[in-house]
Amino acid sequence: MAETATIARPYAEALFRVASESSAGNLGAWSELVSEMGLVAAAPEMQALADDPNVSGDKLVELFLSVLKSPVSEEARRFVQLLVDNDRLTVLPEIAEQFHALKNQREGSADVQITSAFPIEDASLKDLLASLERKFGRKLVPTVAVDPSLIGGVRVQVGDEVLDTSVRARLAAMQAALTA
Question: Within 13 A of 172's CA, how many CA atoms are on the CB side?
Fold first, then answer.
């Protein structure tokens, strides 16, 4: 949703600045914490609590922070308090996404979603990543999933670019060519 992205952008940028300048931890630790906070905020139970007018802001902050497994710095605590005070806790998943994009941009890397019909062995994954990094010209952080419906091959997504070399995609292309 464009509106959510617009609302989240200044929060993500401010949090990224704080995380970059923080002496308490590195950007990687902040990234993990923000990702975890985004997952917790996306939970239906937490969204229901955030929308409940009977739950006070302080109580919501304490409940939210108590669910987190990662250690929470004072800056992170104040950030959550700010989101609750401005009724923006439900925007936290989008903030986490934008924070992660800013981190990737600074590091010159990108996330890659690799979907394979079968589990990929470590050696094959390293070879595939090396090829993809040469193609895209940056370091890639992989997330691997298995989808048997691909029949064979892989589907790779980096940002909005998709490389689909799966058997399913080839069959669909053949079907389109034969029916045209």
Answer: 9
pLDDT in tens, 111-170: 999 999 999 999 999 999 999 999 989 999 999 999 999 999 999 999 889 999 999 999
- pTM score: 0.76
| Sequential DSSP letters for the chain | -HHHHHHHHHHHHHHHHHHHH-SSS-HHHHHHHHHHHHHHHHSHHHHHHHH-TTS-HHHHHHHHHHH--S---HHHHHHHHHHHHTT-GGGHHHHHHHHHHHHHHHHTEEEEEEEESSPPPHHHHHHHHHHHHHHHTSEEEEEEEE-GGG-SSEEEEETTEEEE--HHHHHHHHHHHHH-
Judge whether 179 and 149 are in contact, CB under 8 Å: no
Ordered DSSP codes for 21-66: H-SSS-HHHHHHHHHHHHHHHHSHHHHHHHH-TTS-HHHHHHHHHH
The rounded distance, in Å, linking the Cα atoms of 153 and 57 is 50
